């Protein structure tokens, strides 16, 4: 008998749920020149949530095409896709595989292994369950929001440029945000 709360009370049914990429966003924020923040997103994502009886029995996997990096500036995007950052030719994918999901109600911690540039590190997303709804076409959808921060240096993303006034061009801390919708398979 499991001591973790059952997910059926949330409206999530057991089974496989697939990411709806047209209603989802994996975004990021990083400090630029020490004075502003650059935001962007990845546009090519595949993810699956397998819902078990409890959160502890559930899992999430995701694969992101590194070349889908989009910050809204073509020159910056080309630089970040290149060898100084993601090196998409050698490391075409970023991935996440959960190792645990804990919580109840609307608040969960989604922990797992994040791989960027072939380097895998543990991360934990503070995650909010936004509910379940049936859309006008009969599809059952579940929504989640999440957030975590990583050190880009931990993943081999070390390129930087010194600023004349001191400091560096690109901050080390990257905040990753999730606004995702899954559809019951």
Automatic annotation (TrEMBL):
PANTHER family: PROTEIN YCEI. Gene3D superfamilies: Lipid/polyisoprenoid-binding, YceI-like. SUPFAM superfamilies: YceI-like. Residues 16-183 form the Lipid/polyisoprenoid-binding YceI-like domain. Pfam families: YceI. It comes from the Bacteria. The lineage of its organism: Bacteria, Bacillati, Actinomycetota, Actinomycetes, Micrococcales. Belongs to the UPF0312 family. This is YceI family protein.
